[in-house]
Amino acid sequence: MTLKSILITALELGVASVSVTSYAGEVSDRVEETKTLLVGTEGTYAPFTFHNKQGELTGFDIDVVKAVADKLGLKVEFKETQWDAMYAGLNAKRFDVIANQTTPTPERLKKYDYSEPYNYSSAVVVVKKDDDSIKQFSDLKDKKAAQSLTSNFTKIAQENAAHIVPVDGLAQALELIRQKRAQATVNDKLAVLDYFQKIPHSGLVIAFEDKAQLGTAFAFTKGEQPLIDKVNQALAQLRTEGTLKQISIKWFGDDITQ
Predict the structure, then answer these.
(1) Residue ranges of the chain with pLDDT lower than 70?
(2) Do the Cβ atoms of 90 and 42 come closer than 8 Å?
(3) Rounded to 5 degrees, what are φ and ψ at 215?
(4) How far apart are CA 50 and CA 59, in angstroms?
(5) What is the number of other CB atoms lying within 10 angstroms of the CB of residue 28?
(6) Given CA atoms 100, 103, 108, 112 in this order, what sign does their dihedral have?
């Protein structure tokens, strides 16, 4: 039943009002009716979501969500938002889904639903090349860690008693380490490797890598299972066809989707 039919039924039954905001599946209905997927993304997180020299929004996550939308016969409209406001934007329904390397942590799963993972990575700790004081997560104790406040990597730093230095993203975090205003950052291995490729003489190194892999998925508000099911079906088709692998090799030279 669509939102429109619910309102009509309510009028026929003489119901004075209907709570629209609490209706489960309203985003799924809107996407079905408009054939447009509103996507929240950062636009400053290379190589996943960023602007190229021509000013065009591009990146691994951008290519994946475009491929999913194409499978579903949907147009894509991107809504660029700072990471720390990303989930607030999803809550406010400024967009239908987040495509920005989101990880379904236990805390997030209480409030949001996620698609199947479309790539995998791990957490790493980055320090200056001459700093050998951090060889494991526990060594972050009392160290200044530059972190985005709502990132799941920040939780790792907090759990290991680091002093958090708030930043807007990875580039700022790494720059603070270079300036010795922070000693480390816990961040995504793939994004860090991309940074090292672009700035090979940064003076920074990966001091430690977590063995546990993290799956990245699209984030949705609760109750949007019809849309999530369609996205999962599209991802499964893209994986079987080899399209996900092709997108991965384009950006990383390797398959990070398995």
Answers:
(1) 1-24
(2) no
(3) -90, 135
(4) 6
(5) 21
(6) positive
The single-letter code of the amino acid at 85 is: A
Question: What pLDDT, on the 0 to 100 scale, is given for residue 206?
Answer: 94
- Please name the residue that has the structure tokens 């406040």: 149
Residue 135 DSSP class: S
Whose tokens are 């799941």? That residue is: 152
Residue 190: the pLDDT is 87
Strand pairing category for 75-80 and 112-114: unpaired
pLDDT of residue 200: 86
- Please tell me the predicted confidence (pLDDT) of residue 124: 95
The total of other beta-carbon atoms located within 10 Å of residue 34's CB is 13
Q: For CA atoms 42, 46, 48, 49, give the dihedral sign.
A: positive
Q: Which amino acid is at 129?
A: K
| Contact status, residue 110 vs residue 87, Cβ threshold 8 Å | no
Cα torsion 109, 111, 117, 119: sign: negative
**Secondary structure (DSSP) of 160-195:** TTPEEEE-SSHHHHHHHHHTTS-SBEEEEHHHHHHH
Strand partners, 214: 121
| Residue at token pair 């104790």 | 141
Q: What is the DSSP letter of 151?
A: -
